[in-house]
């Protein structure tokens, strides 16, 4: 949920509560005021009647009056000192429509006679007033409500602009160009703090990236040199004519293991370098040319295994990729397709303007999807001749470009499909 | 033939020297930038093998120094960094070759021989081993003055074997030399056997001595001893 939506919802909830409370309070006060007013009128009317009765009934005669709104008649009940005013419920008015009435009742002693005075007053006018009042309050509140919403929205948009600008900047930044990113000063303290922190952070990330790159290079140097020493010593040892056959065999095995170690080191470094975007490029290269190059390079292996090769390279696939990565991609895929093939098996390569497909026969089981591109996942049969990083490298290369890769196995045929 | 080996790693320097001594070169060594610079300025070498990462300076500067003195030395850079940029930079500065560590000593030797042959304008450009003669420029081979037809790979193999004569070569060393580093991707060297077999048969058919020996099924040696 957007922050603006969230603040608006909270604001609305508060507004509804506040306006509701105010509305109810105002209504009650207004109603009370009106009642008080009409009660006063009734009391005044009563006073008039009492005055009249006192002057008109000085003789010992009794007075009676019965009309719709007023009834005055003698009673035996004792006189009351205070008039009671209350709602009289719904009664018909002149036109016969039921309307609420309010009534005043008091027993007043005039001379020796006690009179019951009932005065009723239609609340019709008051109702109309209350209705008008309510309508006005609602309109005013709605206007207030709407205005607040619009202001809130407009102010938020304006206030959050620097935040959105910073966000946009972070989004469009990649690691390679991080040192050029700068978050500018704004006139909001909080955003200034945020931007200062972001500046500090990007600077640190970029420095870490640089030292990581440096480490990658240095690691290569530091590890390859001792490997080179061991290899050269082994090579000299192998020349000793006094070696027994088993000693010689051990030395050869050590040499082979060392070659794998060196290979492994180079593969891991390659992975690290791709992850560090050190092969970022805008160069377009023809994948078809790379494929042809490796078909020539691997021709002996293909011939050795008597592979039946189908090549459809009429259309070229142009990719944006570093030359070294394209080499690595094709040599890994083609190398695998030959290595895991069987004698007399088949190998097929096909390029279109938007895809590359390589499929080969193999007696190996299909590679489980979840472990397809994971590091060091390999068939036990290939442990001695593989680093287990080939497909991980392939995936990393694909991920560093705008390409996608799929794999499926159907019977003995295993296929890798790369598309734009 | 005089060769200068500039390498700061003592053990590796000793291995290279031992191998090149065995091959009959006169070797001198330097272990840091200052002594290497002094040596290339004071003496003349047929070939300089120089490491990039040196104490006190970069191997690139030694290459630049050599080029400044209009030296005729061949230059081979050996580096632990398998970076394309470095290779290009080395070649632009005027080095003749770039070898990534770890390398086979026999590979270094083959590269040195190739450079020396290219630079040695005065001498004949024929490689001779008893009755075998190789013309690297035209890639021709004769045995007892009679031409022998070899495929490109077989020619490369023969040249490499003769360059490393007397030296045991592992299958991996041969595969890397003939097919390049990339080939390790495939991880199998057994196909080399058929190339060796074909080459030996062609040589024997042409009346050549049986110089190519298989050592315990794990490597090959070309030797007349």
Structure, described:
The complex is a heterodimer of chains A (420) and B (225). Chain A has helices at residues 3-56, 124-159, 161-171, 189-237, 245-275, 287-297, 299-304, 323-339, 390-399, and strands at residues 65-66, 70-75, 84-92, 98-110, 113-122, 284-286, 308-312, 318-320, 346-351, 355-361, 404-410, 413-419. Chain A is α+β, with helices and mostly antiparallel strands. Chain A has four domains: 3-156, no CATH class; 175-203, no CATH class; 213-275; 284-419, Histidine kinase-like ATPase, C-terminal domain (Heat Shock Protein 90). Chain A has a five-stranded antiparallel beta sheet. Chain A has a five-stranded mixed beta sheet with strand order 7-9-10-12-11, with helices on one face. A two-stranded antiparallel sheet of chain A has the order 6-8. In chain A, β11 and β12 (413-419) form a beta hairpin. Chain B has helices at residues 10-22, 33-42, 59-68, 84-93, 105-119, 152-163, 171-179, 191-205, and strands at 2-6, 26-30, 47-51, 53-54, 57-58, 74-79, 97-100, 127-129, 132-135, 140-143, 146-147, 169-170, 212-215, 219-222. The mean pLDDT of chain B is 87. The longest helix of chain B is centred in the middle third of the chain and has 15 residues, at 105-119. Helix content of chain B is 42%, strand content 23%. In chain B, β13 (212-215) and β14 form a beta hairpin. Chain B is an alpha/beta fold and 225 residues long. The A-B interface holds A 217, 220-225, 227-233, 235-236, 238-239, 245, 248-249, 252, 255-256, 258-259, 262-263, 266, 294, 297-298, 300-301, 304, 323-324, 327, 331-332, 335, 338-339, 382, 385-386, 390 and B 9, 11-12, 15-16, 18-19, 53, 80-84, 100-106, 153, 167-168, 170, 172-173, 179-180, 182-188, 190-191, 194-195, 215-216, 218-219.
């Amino acid at each position: 949920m957007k922050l603006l939506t969230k603040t608006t919802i909270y604001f609305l909830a508060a507004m509804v509560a506040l306006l509701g409370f105010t509305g109810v309070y105002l209504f009650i006060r207004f109603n009370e005021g009106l009642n008080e007013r009409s009660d006063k009128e009734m009391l005044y009317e009563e006073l008039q009647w009492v005055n009249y009765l006192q002057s008109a009934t000085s003789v010992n005669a009794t007075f009676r009056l019965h009309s719709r709104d007023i009834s005055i008649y003698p009673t035996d009940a004792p006189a009351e000192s205070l008039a009671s005013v209350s709602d009289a419920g719904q009664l018909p008015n002149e036109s016969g429509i039921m309307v609420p009435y309010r009534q005043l009742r008091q027993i007043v002693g005039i001379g020796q006679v006690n009179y019951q005075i009932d005065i009723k007053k239609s609340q019709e006018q008051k109702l109309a007033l209350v209705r008008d009042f309510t309508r006005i309050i609602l309109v005013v509140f709605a206007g207030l409500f709407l205005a607040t919403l619009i202001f809130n929205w407009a102010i938020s948009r304006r206030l959050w602009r620097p935040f959105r600008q910073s966000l946009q900047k972070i989004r469009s930044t990649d690691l390679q160009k991080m040192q050029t990113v700068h978050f500018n000063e704004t006139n909001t303290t909080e955003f200034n703090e945020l931007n200062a922190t972001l500046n500090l952070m990007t600077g640190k990330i970029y420095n870490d990236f640089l030292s990581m790159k440096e480490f990658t290079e240095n690691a290569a140097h530091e590890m390859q040199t001792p490997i080179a020493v061991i290899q050269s010593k082994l090579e000299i040892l192998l020349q000793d004519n006094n070696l027994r056959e088993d000693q010689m065999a051990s030395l050869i095995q050590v040499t082979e293991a060392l070659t794998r170690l060196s290979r492994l080191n180079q593969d891991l470094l390659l992975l690290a370098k791709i992850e560090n975007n050190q092969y970022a490029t805008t160069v377009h290269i023809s994948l078809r040319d790379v494929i042809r190059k490796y078909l020539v390079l691997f021709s002996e292996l293909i011939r050795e295994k008597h592979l039946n090769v189908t090549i459809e390279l009429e259309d070229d696939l142009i990719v944006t990729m570093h030359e070294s990565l394209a080499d690595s991609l094709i040599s890994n895929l083609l190398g695998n397709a030959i290595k895991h093939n069987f004698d007399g098996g088949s190998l097929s390569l096909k390029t279109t303007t938007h895809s590359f497909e390589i499929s080969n026969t193999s007696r190996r089981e299909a590679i489980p999807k979840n472990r397809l591109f994971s590091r060091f996942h390999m068939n036990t049969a290939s442990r001695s001749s593989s680093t287990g990083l080939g497909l991980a490298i392939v995936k990393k290369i694909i991920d560093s470009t705008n390409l996608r890769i799929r794999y499926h196995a159907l019977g003995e045929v295993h296929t890798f499909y790369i598309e734009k | 033939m005089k060769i200068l080996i500039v390498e700061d790693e003592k053990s590796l320097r000793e291995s290279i020297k031992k191998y090149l001594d065995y091959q009959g070169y006169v070797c001198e060594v330097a272990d840091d930038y200052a002594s290497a610079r002094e040596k290339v300025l004071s003496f003349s070498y047929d070939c300089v093998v120089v490491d990039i990462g040196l104490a006190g300076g970069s191997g690139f500067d030694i290459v630049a120094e050599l080029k400044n003195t209009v030296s005729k030395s061949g230059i081979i850079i050996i580096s632990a960094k398998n970076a394309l940029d470095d290779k290009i930079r080395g070649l632009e500065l005027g080095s003749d070759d770039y070898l990534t560590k770890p390398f086979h000593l026999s590979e270094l030797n083959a590269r040195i021989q190739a450079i020396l042959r290219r630079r040695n304008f005065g001498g004949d450009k024929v490689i001779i081993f008893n009755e075998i003669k190789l013309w690297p420029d035209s890639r021709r081979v004769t045995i007892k003055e009679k031409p022998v037809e070899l495929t490109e790979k077989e020619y490369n193999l023969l040249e490499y074997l003769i360059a490393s004569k007397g030296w045991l070569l592992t299958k991996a060393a041969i595969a890397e030399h003939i097919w390049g580093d990339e080939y390790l991707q495939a991880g199998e060297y057994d196909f080399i056997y058929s190339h060796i077999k074909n080459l030996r048969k062609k040589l024997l058919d042409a009346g050549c001595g049986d110089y190519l020996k298989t050592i315990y099924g794990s490597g090959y040696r070309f030797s007349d001893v």
